[in-house]
From TrEMBL:
InterPro entries: ATPase_NBD, ROK, Tscrpt_reg_IclR_N, WH-like_DNA-bd_sf, WH_DNA-bd_sf. SUPFAM superfamilies: Actin-like ATPase domain (SSF53067), Winged helix' DNA-binding domain (SSF46785). This is ROK family protein. Pfam families: HTH_IclR, ROK. Belongs to the ROK (NagC/XylR) family. Signal peptide: none annotated. Residues 29-64 form the HTH iclR-type domain.
């Protein structure tokens, strides 16, 4: 608690805590940025609003500064979440590398880094490196004394959302059932959310201006997965965390190709980024340059290499066939394609569009928008921060903030 504070968090009555939750959420979302706007939107007396705002300022959760607006007389005062109120730590794990980010409670990203470790080394090695780098990032940017309020980890696998662990992941040896959530909770002393990486991507895309829901994100990488954001803005994870694990749906072509899951003809085995690279003889295992494969594939496409173009279009058709079924099942308003293979936008996007419009009925596609990711590789980080913010500023999250402030 800040020096000079005259309100103890454990002395805040329940009814006041509910009111503080509402005011804090309005400030955090930008819905209200002044005492006057809070009073106007809530209908509360200005004296009541001032008491609530003063309490949040005393607890170190909110700050009030002079606005930049040019007006006559006394300058207006603007309310915002304090940069010292807490931090969000994010680890977006992919097969070959993990993106890290730290952000304040307003959602502003303070720093980002990449840890170049493969998931094949097991959870202990990777999580140790992630923990060490996140702590270093907090220290290097002067936030080591600021409490971490929430940690989010995205995994390229089906995830048991409640247990915080991967469930039988074909591309992550040693990770099945490993308590990722418990491990990070012990390291940071904060609530932890573990989710599927494509779910986080979908949440990130759903935060963008003009984004509409239901929204479906397809990630084409070493595996192929889907993330679903429903009409009310929540993620559909399914009963066991397997919702969206479309990479192991059987493709209609090349049914003899063996998948890493042990089955044959899986979509992942015939249409993933790794499958395309393998068929074209492009080495994807370069340690010194992890972007080598992407650049080499892009070069072949730019040079109109017929074999590369044919292979990519074949993959797009396979993906589009499965996506057409999802369009009928989910009836999304927006379909977003992401991942390294979809950076070749024209070839993949046109192929998936063609398959969807050919195979899905007009009712399911008449208002459907099919587009590439607006955020690219940042989508998972943006979605993770959005997910953490929801938890932090939920009623239970605010009660925890008031207790810990």
């Amino acid at each position: 608690m800040q020096k000079g504070v005259n309100v103890a968090a454990d002395e805040v009555p329940g009814s006041v805590a509910i009111a503080l939750h509402k005011v804090l959420c309005m400030i955090a979302s930008g819905e209200a940025t002044s005492r006057a706007s809070i009073a106007r939107l809530t209908g509360l007396a200005r004296s009541t609003v001032s008491q609530q705002v003063d309490t949040l300022i005393d607890l170190g959760l909110v700050e009030e500064t002079e606005s930049n607006q040019s007006v006559r007389g006394r300058p207006p005062r603007a309310l915002a979440i304090s940069p010292r109120a807490g931090m969000i730590a994010v680890a977006d794990v992919d097969v070959a590398a993990t993106q890290l980010a730290i952000a304040d409670l307003s959602g502003t990203v303070i720093a980002r880094e990449i840890v170049n470790l493969s998931v094949e080394g097991g959870p202990e090695e990777l999580l140790a490196a992630v923990t060490a780098r996140l702590r270093s990032m907090l220290t290097e940017h002067g936030h080591d004394s600021v409490p971490v309020r929430h940690v989010v980890a995205g995994l390229p696998a089906p995830v048991d959302f409640h247990r915080g662990c991967a469930v039988r992941p074909p591309i992550m040896p040693g990770w099945d059932g490993y308590p990722v959530g418990d491990h990070l909770r012990e390291q940071f002393g904060a609530p932890v959310t573990v989710d599927n990486d494509v779910n986080l991507m979908a949440l990130g895309e759903a935060t963008q201006e003009m984004a509409d829901t239901p929204l479906l994100v397809i990630k084409v990488a070493s595996g192929i997965g889907a993330g679903i954001v429903t009409a009310d803005g929540s993620v559909h994870r399914g009963a066991d965390g397997a919702a969206g694990d479309i990479g192991h749906i059987r493709a209609s072509t090349r049914s003899d190709v063996v998948c890493r899951c042990g089955k044959t003809g899986c979509l992942e085995a015939v249409a993933s980024y790794r499958a395309v690279l393998t068929d074209l003889g492009i080495d994807s295992s370069s340690v010194d340059d992890r972007l080598h494969a992407s650049r080499e594939l892009a070069r072949l496409v730019a040079d109109s290499d017929t074999r590369a173009l044919h292979r990519i279009r074949q993959a797009a058709a396979n993906i589009g066939e499965v996506v057409a079924m999802l369009v009928h099942t989910i009836n999304p308003r927006v379909l977003v394609l992401g991942g390294p293979l979809t950076e070749l936008q024209d070839e993949i996007l046109s192929g998936v569009r063609a398959a969807v419009y050919e195979q899905a009925l007009p009712l399911a596609t008449r208002k459907l928008i099919i587009t590439s990711s607006q955020l690219g590789s940042d989508a998972g980080i943006v979605g993770a921060i959005a997910l953490a913010s929801r938890e932090i500023f939920s009623r239970s999250g605010v009660a925890r903030l008031l207790t810990e402030a």
